[in-house]
Amino acid sequence: MTKLTIKDIARLSAVGKSTVSRVLNNDPNVSDNTRERVQKIIAQYGFQPSKSARAMRGVSDRVIGIIVTRLSSTAENQALSSILPLLYAQQCEPIIVESQFNPQLVDEHLAFFHQRRVDGVILFAFSELEEQSLQTWQHKMVVIAKNYPSLSSVYYDDQKAVQLLMTHLYAQGHRKISYLGVDDRDMTTGYARHQAYLHFCQQHDLQPCALQGELGYEWAYQHTSAVIFPEVSALVCATDTLAIGALKYLQEQQLTHIQVCGVGKSPLLHFLFPNVLSVDLGFAQVGEIAVKQLVALLENQPIQQHCLDCRLVF
Predict the structure, then answer these.
(1) CA–CA distance, 25 with 21 (Å, rounded to integer)
(2) How far apart are CA 131 and CA 139, in angstroms?
(3) Alpha helices per DSSP H over 92-235
(4) Quick check: 290 and 122 in contact, CB under 8 A?
(5) What is the mean pLDDT of each run of 10 residues along the chain (314 residues)?
């Protein structure tokens, strides 16, 4: 079958070509009956306007690939909740895939995006992902959560997040502060936050007591006992997810006098434990900044890096 044109849709709908264009542009001045008649024909024949026709109307036809590390990530879902409305507002079509912290999967997703001729990519990075492997996307990719000097990046101030917690606890009189974190192989959530804890302890002559491992709340629940001893009065967790597991363990052991802190401003943490101190890394802002950076890249503007500020949430 020959591909239909706007002229064909107009003839089949018994309206003018300009009316079809107005329907495609969501013009509110088109009557409901006319809009329904045109849309019925469009759906019946699977009509898709050509890119050139859309460009003439000034309508964006961009497809944006988004690679998250895992769809279950609370932090990344908070960022996505701000990214998607901004893309939809610009009439962009997002394609969301999951990397599962696997560089090979990232390569496969990028190959798929290349085949689909996506206009831009937003990538949630992780430690094992090498900057060099992303170079071919340099002018149409924004990376979130890790700072790659040669790529547009939006990243979190991991060291400041832990420093804010430690400073607050120290000012409250806590001197025995333990730490529950993520393995140092994770350069941001793991290494950077752990080093911030150790550095504060060294600066203030505190005895460090830290354990690092997995990211999940189950791991935290099973291992909190390893960093709890009689004098401990506070526990800093590298993420809110770890804090949830630690708090469950401490409640069961009736150790509610220990002040637990987290990083991430997780809605679930504050629903379960409203009085827990946490750090807002800037998840609400990351989407807006990432989309702005991507649009700028696609308009041939320079590569940018942006470190998000963080703040305590009481």
Answers:
(1) 6
(2) 14
(3) 103-116, 158-171, 193-203, 217-223
(4) yes
(5) 73 87 74 85 73 47 92 88 89 93 97 94 96 95 96 97 98 98 95 98 98 96 96 97 97 96 93 94 91 94 95 93
